[in-house]
# Entry
Amino acid sequence: MNEVSRTTYRIGSLGAFADWTRRVVRDPGAAQGVGAAQGVAKRWFDSEATARGAGTGSVPVSAEAMVKLLSPGNMAVLEAIRRHRPASVRELAALTGRKEASLSRTLKRLAQVGIVAFRDGPHRTRVPAVIARRVLLEIDLTGRPGAVVVNAGG
# Structure
């Protein structure tokens, strides 16, 4: 069983997860964050492919960076993609009034964290689509790094 990321998820079998869960339940310090659960990701997947499909993304992002990425202006871009389904980044730039180069950088970052995806369109265009429906932020007020999870469904 490999720990893939300190804060987002872990790869392991259902049996390994069950064993870990039993250890945490038996460990009286777990509730205070000093036992078996301390520093261990709370999301488990059977494979890296499943983790990627669940929207954990290949690019780690802090909770602070995600909040900045989901600024009101970028939320308006996501809404424009959902509502108008533009056929290209150029069309989206016209819809939103943003410069195409700046918009491309924003969309690239949104794609890196699993919120947006592109499909190939006609004449080498890239068609943006919103693939995430929810972003969950976990912020630990004790100073430990927070976790960000992007969920494609629901």
The helical segments are 14-26, 48-53, 63-69, 72-84, 89-96, 100-112. The two ends are 29 Å apart (CA to CA). The chain has six helices and six strands.
